Amino acid sequence: MSAKRRKGQPESGPAHQPVGSDYPRRRTHVERPAESAGWRASKRSSKLGRKVRREAKVERVRTNVRDGARTTGNTIVAGLQVLGMALGGIVAVLLVLFILATAINQGARWLARRDAAEQSTPEARAEKARENLLIIGTEGTGTAEFLAVRLDENDEQILGIAVPSGAFMEVPGQGFERVGESISGGPGVSLAAISNYLGVPFDHYVVVSPTVYQDAMTNQSLRDVMGNITETSLPEEDRARIAEFISGVEGARTALVPLPVKPIDLGGETFLEPQRDQIADLLLQWWGVKLGAGDSSVRVIIYNGAGTPGIAGQAAQQLIAAGMRVVDTKNADRFDYAATLVVVQDGDLKQGEQVATALGTGEVVDKPSEQDVADVIVIIGKDYVPPQENTQQ
Description:
The chain has helices at about 35-120, 120-130, 185-200, 210-220, 235-250, 275-285, 310-320, 350-360, 385-390, and strands at about 130-135, 145-150, 155-165, 170, 175-180, 205-210, 230, 255-260, 260-265, 270-275, 300-305, 325-330, 340-345, 365, 375-380. Helix 3 packs across helix 7 (about 310-320).
């Protein structure tokens, strides 16, 4: 019969454990506190929240990047549009300025041609030449010095440029040589050479001895010139008028300056090269003549196609006297040209007509060329008659 269960003793237990033993029982299973459903929900909610916040943050960044790129693109496009409009405006303004400049240049060239045409008339040239005189100092030794003078009666002054015999320039009919040697062809050749180089019309000359010439330069006075003339082309009434004017001009109102030249030694010989820029300043100030780009004179090259010696030089003197500038004279490729040809190089047929009129003959031919040495080329034919022969006939 089973023993009576004591108060507080379990109803059953292992048989080997003594009743009333104080040994603790070994736990075979540890129970954990039950987790409430609310805690798990909040944990899942926190994870989900962080994920949502991360995604939201990434989306905000992407949105900001897209918005920034869109804004930047819009700004660039707007800037390019503004820049394009500005460039278009600048181009339009430049185009307008170019058109205006072209129109102004064309107008200026037209006015220059009109003025040149008016000034190249025989009457206008004769009026200009009236106050000009070439003084030649020579003893008939084959060389000479020259004093190109302007007798300005309006302002009561005398202005002159002394050209040394050693200055090299184009001499009609003789080519490029010392201008002093032009006297060998006569005073008329020297007159044409000086007039051609300076672009100043000279119709008359006076010849004096080298001593009188040098005294005039040293004393800066022409008062002894008119009383010591050995040869001249001046009519008697003009000699009296000029002598009277010279005697009444004060010494301070006379300026005689040497032609600006640069000595050049070639092969033991000294050449005098005229300094074109400095000469241009003098000519513009004293005669109102423009050299270089401002020179409106018709530039001509003359070829002797007739075979007559010296005929190109005679034609050159004739054209120079008509206010044209002879650049060169030389022989043609042959000497059997029956008719004189006037070949226009720049397309301006009026220039060719002026040349033909001055020569008294010539067939005008339009043959444009890219060279910028001459405006017109003349080939003298056998039909050309020099002025001296015309006068004799």
